[in-house]
């Protein structure tokens, strides 16, 4: 019996070889029928609100509508190496 062929994901520098029905190291991309597909949903907050969806606050204090509070900003290099 022949093993199903793994396919290479090039979404990041790890370049995983993903077996059919499995996800890569990131758990974000999967091999579905020989195609790389994104396996986690992308949520757009504005669309969710427009459709009457509920947004759960992440942390306190209550959000004042600003995208980022300069005093709370902390810049890191996490994710800087991915595409």
Number of DSSP strand runs:
4
Categorize the overall geometry. elongated
Provide the residue-averaged pLDDT: 79
Low-confidence stretches: none
Q: Measured on Cα atoms, how large is the radius of gyration? A: 18 Å
Helix vs. strand class: mainly beta
* SSE pattern, N- to C-terminal: EEEEH
Task: Report what the structure shows.
The longest helix has 6 residues, at 45-50. With 83 residues, the protein is mainly beta. A two-stranded antiparallel sheet has the order 1-2. A two-stranded antiparallel ribbon has the order 3-4. A hairpin with an 8-residue loop joins strand 1 and strand 2 (17-18). The radius of gyration is 18 Å and the shape is elongated. 7% of the residues lie in helices and 14% in strands. The chain has one helix at 45-50, and strands at residues 7-8, 17-18, 29-32, 35-38. The chain has a domain at 1-57.
